[in-house]
Amino acid sequence: MSKEAGKSKRSTPKLAVVIMAAGKGTRLRSRRPKVLHEVGGKPLLSHVIATAGKLAEAEDIFAIIGHQAERVREAVSGTDVRFIEQKEQRGTGHAIQCAREAIGGYEHILVLSGDVPLIQADTLQHLMTLHLAEGASMTILTAVQEDPAGYGRIIRHSPDRAEVDAIVEQKALKPEQESVREINSGIYAFKVGPLLRHLDKLTNNNAHGEFYLTDMVALLHSAGEKVAALKAVNATEVLGVNTIAELAALDASIRAATANRLMAAGVTIFRPETCVIDAEVQVEPDTIIEPFVQLLGSTRIGTDCRIRSYSVIENCTLGNDVLVRQGCVLSESTVADGARIGPFAHLRPGSEIGQDAHVGNFVETKKAKLGKGAKANHLTYLGDAEVGAGTNIGAGVITCNYDGVHKHVTRIGQGSFIGSDSTLVAPIEIGDGAYIGAGSCITRNVPSGALAVGRSRQVTKEGWAAARRARREEEEQK
Ligand code: UD1
Ligand code: CA
Description:
CATH architecture of the largest domain: Alpha-Beta Complex
Bound molecules: uridine-diphosphate-N-acetylglucosamine, calcium ion
Shape: elongated
Number of strands: 39
Helix content: 10-25%
CATH topology of the largest domain: Spore Coat Polysaccharide Biosynthesis Protein SpsA, Chain A
CATH class of the largest domain: Alpha Beta
Number of helices: 10
Number of domains: 2
Largest sheet: 14 strands, parallel
Structural class: alpha/beta
């Protein structure tokens, strides 16, 4: 149901999304708030907010925060989510009680859990559609889990009943209920009127001494309100994260899905289970990714590339036919077609490596632009530098870009040759086709076509070693 489709109908009910994210996550045994733990390279809560943002009919998204609220608020400050504080975390029912004022103006709310990150927008849309069609006061998203341990169970007075009679938490299960594999996902649609009328009737008379939102089922039921349920088609979408092991399992399943998507589109990934690839990464067909590679953030890689083992590439754009050899770290940089990087190269932010350029062993670049076919093959630092097309940077060349206070730029023209172990003290310009003698310390500009040698002249004393030896022997005999 899109906003457009909604408008053409008589009226779209006013809907808000409420994400419960105030809990501490005791079972994670971590100082970090649970919803900021990451799967697939993003905090749990960010996944849920992103999904909520896809629901065109939701007018507002609220997050209920409490435990380390400031930290959570800051982590998702880039979104248009609005915050509700639950100062003391006295249970999921208490969380919604804290949202009473915020939700008062809506007809329906969709309640999501900050620790159920894989939920998909179309599943939520189905839940809302069923909720409205049934005229239910509460509609629960359920799922049949292979291993239901730890989840609240969906209890129906008779198995073929469409309506749910109660949700019973793990600790309160009667022996005959332990085998129920239909679980509560912690995701619900509510009609706001009946919810608010009965919300304060929740009690904390249970094993955890908490106010359970799940008890609304029985409360609404006894008030004659309809409680419906939708079984999720894909049970993994509603997996919750309560322990680090569950977190790691969920992360692995997200990574596997991403790798499978790329492989289905023609990308070769050897030992995909060892690679860490973020969901937004794009790779063109016929590129080969070797084991233990990480492709992160908004990285894009062209066709016919090879990314060798142990390289970590974050927020970079690589053209076609690029080779990244073993053990490279590339961040926020671009690499043009045919370039060769590594092994053990470090491209720091703002590096632009031109077509067919080479950046070799133990070379570090930062805000450095290498022209077409330029080469820096060994042991070099290029910071705040421009290197023209075809220029060769010898082994061990250093741009001295920092005077202790400011950063300065080094400009090197095309087709130049910078001899090994030279230091170029910026700000400095070296023209086209210039030569710098090996071991030079260059402090003044070098015009095009010139040779600059900035080192002391070599002194050779023939026979010096034998003379020294003779002197020492004489001294020892005294
Ligand atoms: C809850 C459900 C359970 C369901 C499971 C699905 C209850 C009582 N139980 O159990 O039936 O099967 O989710 O994953 O609701 N939160 C707050 N404030 C609080 C307490 C929790 O905002 O005072 C938030 C948490 O941060 C979390 C979510 O609510 O994001 C669920 O809380 P959690 O304690 O993890 O509930 P479960 O025991 O998993
Ligand atoms: Ca949970």
